Amino acid sequence: MTVTLDLSALDVPRSNGELVFDAPWQGRIFGLVVSLCESGLFAWDEFKAHLIREIGTADEEVNCDPAVYYRQFAAAFAAMMTERGQLDAFEFDARTLIEQENLAHDDHEGHDHEH
Amino acid sequence: MDWLSMKDVAARINALESLMVEKGLAEHAAVDAVVASFENDMGPLNGARVVVRAWTDPAYQAWLLSDATAAIADMGFTGLQTEHLVAVENTDDVHNVVVCTLCSCYPWTLLGIPPAWFKYPQYRARVVKEPRSVLGEFGVVLGPDVQIKVWDSSAEIRYLVIPQRPAGTDGMSAEELITLVTRNSMVGTDLLTSPQAA
């Protein structure tokens, strides 16, 4: 479960000044997939096959929206875990309702969008 | 489930994470660590350090070109999409450019998260068919004699382009040189220019 990312205390700018993730959920899904891959749950190629499928089935114009990429990333992960029998659709829907409530309670700023 | 149009994507992602943690598959701290490392530690500066070492140390340059994975591991850069790294060198005669035609494979450890354009279908499709004109749109204008090599990272291999060292930089320190190396130059969509004379 070790994350081999100890790159010492380099003072590195964020991707030459660009924000890495546009919204917190983008970082969470990316971090979840990468950490599970590093823990050995699946090989990156297995995930990549699902990601290629998600990107391949989307419209060309849709693919141009950077925010779409992490949705495709999430779709690929959910599809892979469902295929592996490690994600149940009913359980997923039920948990999403709980998390929606958690987010509504957390959000005192009145943000009504995710960007 | 339509992920592209769903409004509650943040709740969906939180549900995925909490379910994975409950099943004992994931740990919140491990997710935190990946996010923090990408936001703070990984980025083009790592790649720039490798490039500058190659510019200033011929033995290292030879090692990088023959076994890039081992050569970058020597600088502490391992794992995360750089397990099978190949370094390709730009010269007066050859210009290298990298693409992932199928998705967005990219050497994260050295360059961070890929820029949006790297994921665009136009770039992924066009740079293979008409690299010279795509490079022109990035402002990279190459002479007709310069051969362009396009490297597709959709397979296991990731690529790092070693840009040409700009002229007039002989007296510069490594730390000064690092500031000249741009992210795009290490993907092949930028040429480095000499620092402006004062």
UniProtKB/TrEMBL annotation, chain A:
Annotated signal sequence range: none
Cited Pfam families: NHase_beta_N
SUPFAM superfamilies per UniProt: Electron transport accessory proteins
Source domain of life: Bacteria
Positions of the Nitrile hydratase beta subunit-like N-terminal domain: 16-106
This protein's name: Nitrile hydratase beta subunit-like N-terminal domain-containing protein
Phylogenetic placement of the source organism: Bacteria, Bacillati, Actinomycetota, Actinomycetes, Kineosporiales
Gene3D superfamilies for the chain: Nitrile hydratase, beta subunit (1.10.472.20)
